[in-house]
Amino acid sequence: MTSHPLLADFPSQTYDKLRYGDIDRQGHINNVAFATFLETGRVALLEAAGRMLAKPGFSFFLAHISIDYLAEIHPPGTVEIGSAVKTIGNSSVTLTQALFQREKCVATCEAVVVQVDPATSRPAALSPALRASLNALMSSGSKPAPAR
Hints:
By secondary structure, the chain is an alpha+beta fold.
């Protein structure tokens, strides 16, 4: 039996409201809405890390996402979102995430976001201050990234 994470395992936690528009023909939340919930979690984590520590105008772009659907989500209510930093690269951050409804893990995710320079549309190195903030949001078992 595979062990699923608990919301308490994640240093960044938030939630999203289940909306009528998220319901599909089967009466549960559509799988596309899962990606939206995970986006809410990524934004919350980046804000917790001090996204404003990035250079002005720089943004994070989603480069990769992999979602494992474990169970259906049923309305009404909310979905809880846990997010943590898994690894930190030169310009990228790999996140591990999970969705929960009523304390049950319903999906897990791995996502990679890349900081991009708006002038060149190319990846841009993370600042030492941002790296330090991201290190504080590492998942248990991950090793902090060295300062550069």
